[in-house]
């Protein structure tokens, strides 16, 4: 699978997906919005890994949306929108934004955990990418910016619904209204990132260890944990308790529990069944 924006390697059940346009600060060109969900779904649906790590190259994680290509498309120079009426052009823009939103939602929708390893600037759409991941780790020089306000835009591809569930609302408003940079240590203190490391090499080594620990667990239990945690963000406690009862009644794998207990007692890696490819039925035994 060839890609313009990403490089993918898979080792020890860990998929490492890297942004590879450092000369452009890993800005998000049109190809990005197609390639990311295609790669994520391929890994998930075809059970190619148990964890995905997203990192980047160059001094910055991502400069976010390539505003030049976005404005070119939206103005009609690339899409022919000038020949349409205003309503048609607005409908095309609405569809474009929806596609961009769905790109990042693919990270939440996949069954396996996704970890973001962030160095340097995480700007605009980079924040949307990072907040759609399950966990975030950063280098000491990392910073986060809701940059859209600085170019006369309202962030629209996932910043607000996700960020307001990760850090205090008042802080989100400050970042959104001012466009200021939040440094790595402040991001750690408010809970946006789990840990901060001195440099990218150290960060990637440590994140790989976290990913390996996750990959050693029963995949069905990890999948269930991700699904229920995501559900919990948007529902009342009583609804979540009902949801987890139904989930475990359908998905609990007694043989996986027995194997996990035996592996722990014998101090050996567990031998767990992989998730089935998407489209195949999970056993409820």
Give the gist of this structure.
By secondary structure, the chain is an alpha/beta fold. The chain contains 11 helices and 9 strands. It has helices at 30-45, 67-75, 86-109, 125-131, 159-163, 169-178, 184-190, 200-215, 219-233, 237-251, 254-266; strands at 6-11, 14-19, 51-56, 114-118, 121-123, 135-139, 143-145, 182-183, 195-197.
Explain how this protein is built:
There is one protein chain. With 285 residues, the protein is of the alpha/beta class. Helix content is 48%, strand content 14%. The chain is built from eleven helices and nine strands. It has helices at residues 30-45, 67-75, 86-109, 125-131, 159-163, 169-178, 184-190, 200-215, 219-233, 237-251, 254-266; strands spanning 6-11, 14-19, 51-56, 114-118, 121-123, 135-139, 143-145, 182-183, 195-197. The protein has a six-stranded mixed sheet, sandwiched between helices. A three-stranded mixed sheet has the order 5-7-8. A hairpin with a 2-residue loop joins β1 (6-11) and β2 (14-19). α9 (219-233) packs antiparallel against α10. The model is unreliable at 281-285 (pLDDT under 50).
- Please report the first level of CATH classification, the CATH class of the largest domain: Alpha Beta
Read across the widest sheet, the strand sequence of neighbours is 1-2-3-4-6-9
Morphology call: globular
Round the mean pLDDT to the nearest integer and report it: 92
- For the record, the CATH architecture of the largest domain stands as Alpha-Beta Complex
Q: Portion of residues in helices?
A: 40-55%
Low-confidence stretches: 281-285
Order of secondary-structure elements: EEHEHHEEHEEHHEHEHHHH
CATH superfamily descriptor of the largest domain: 2-enoyl-CoA Hydratase, Chain A, domain 1
Going by helix content, strand content and strand pairing, the class is: alpha/beta
What is the fold-level CATH name, i.e. the topology of the largest domain?
2-enoyl-CoA Hydratase, Chain A, domain 1
Number of helices: 11
């Amino acid at each position: 699978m060839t890609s313009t924006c990403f490089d993918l390697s898979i080792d020890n059940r860990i998929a490492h997906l890297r942004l590879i346009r450092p000369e452009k600060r890993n800005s998000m060109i049109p190809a990005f919005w197609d390639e990311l969900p295609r790669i994520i779904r391929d890994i998930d649906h075809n059970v190619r890994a148990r964890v995905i790590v997203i990192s980047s190259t160059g001094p910055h994680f991502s400069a976010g949306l390539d505003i030049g290509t976005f404005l070119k498309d939206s103005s009609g120079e690339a899409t022919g929108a000038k020949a349409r009426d205003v309503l048609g052009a607005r409908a095309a823009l609405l569809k474009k934004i929806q596609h961009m939103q769905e790109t990042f939602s693919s990270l939440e929708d996949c069954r396996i955990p996704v970890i973001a390893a962030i160095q340097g600037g995480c700007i605009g759409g980079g924040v949307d990418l990072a907040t759609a991941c399950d966990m975030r780790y950063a280098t000491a020089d990392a910073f986060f910016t809701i940059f859209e306000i600085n170019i006369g835009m309202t962030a629209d591809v996932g910043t607000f619904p996700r960020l307001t569930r990760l850090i205090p609302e008042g802080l989100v408003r400050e970042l959104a209204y001012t466009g200021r940079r939040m440094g790595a240590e402040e991001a750690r203190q408010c809970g946006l990132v789990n840990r901060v490391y001195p440099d990218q090499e150290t960060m990637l080594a440590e994140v790989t260890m976290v990913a390996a620990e996750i990959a050693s667990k029963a995949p069905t239990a990890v999948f269930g944990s991700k699904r229920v945690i995501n559900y919990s963000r948007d529902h009342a406690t009583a609804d979540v308790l009902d949801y987890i009862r139904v989930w475990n009644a359908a998905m609990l794998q007694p043989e996986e529990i027995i194997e996990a207990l035996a592996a722990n007692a014998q101090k050996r890696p567990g031998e767990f069944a992989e998730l089935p490819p998407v489209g195949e039925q999970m056993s409820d035994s």
